[in-house]
Amino acid sequence: MNNQDIKPVSVKTFQKLKNNNEKITMLTAYDYSTAKYIDECGIDAVLIGDSLGMTILGYDNTINVTMEDMITFTKAVSRGIKRALVVADMPFLSYHLSKEQATLNAGKLIQAGAKAVKLEGASDFILDNIKHLTNCGINVMGHLGFTPQYINTIGGYYVQGKSYENTLKLLEAAKKLEENGAFAIVLEMVPEESAKYISENTSIPTIGIGAGKYCDGQILVVDDILGKYSGNIPKFAKKYANLKEIMTNAISQYNVEVKEQIFPLPEHVFNLTKEEMDKLGNFIS
Ligand code: KIV
After folding, report:
1. Is the CB–ligand 1 distance for residue 177 below 6 Å?
2. What mean pLDDT value characterizes the chain?
3. Of the residues 144, 221, 224, which should be mutated to test ligand 1's pocket, given the most ligand atoms within 8 Å of the CB?
């Protein structure tokens, strides 16, 4: 397909899909090639998630991810995308100090190629920031339920909204995100019934991760579905491939073949012409 035939997914497309009861597909991506394959498969949106702290940078959680990290990976992913909506996570403490700080940092991610940013939580200052960012022309996706940047206050990887009262609190937060201009909300690790209730009572799309089938869309971490990440894999992450096995088999085979001088074969090398070889004469053994 020619570039001019591709209709890029926008935040309006997200809303249209929800209104038409069509599911929204979303995956994380951190590098150019993976982003390109995701786009070619017709996934609606990619998130440069700060989960790259674990999957790419080897940290225990997302807390150490910096703006510089997010800018680098947002640039790489954006270069691979022609159709999908590109959303970049705002990392820990990059939108908490002031509206100015949030705007400058969100602007950097947009200039790196993102069409929207995602930030976690719905406290008053975050709602103010969302309103300000949307007034500046920056699309904002919210994130409720389990919010990884609050891991130290939550105290662990716990399901959120497990009671009637907490489900109502999540709905209230979702409505506030909507009122302040968020175009969609990620719901992470929320009971299916609570996520259904929230999805049915908000106008903007909900994108679930560990939140059951009634959300308006689904997102998963690409390294989890491909079986590449070898750290802790949550129960909601269905594994569609075993890249770890494919990669370790290939790498081990390469190791053996070099040690045993099986690789490289004639088709992998460059050769001198006969004339040049003759000039080298006896120097070639
Ligand atoms: O960082 C991330 O990958 C995310 C998803 C899990 C939603 O925020």
Report:
1. no
2. 96
3. 221
pTM of the model: 0.96
What is the residue range of 114's domain? Answer: 3-241
Distance between CA 44 and CA 33 in Å, rounded?
17
**Total H helices, total E strands in the chain:** 12, 8
The active-site residue out of 188, 245, 257, 267 is: 188
Q: Are 153 and 63 in a shared domain?
A: yes
Is the domain of 154 the same as that of 277?
A: no
Separation of alpha carbons 51 and 94, rounded Å = 15
Same domain, 52 and 115: yes
The one-letter amino acid code at 248 reads T
Pocket of ligand 1 contains residue 39 by CB under 6 Å:
no
Q: What is the mean pLDDT of residues 118-135?
A: 97
**pLDDT at site 238:** 97
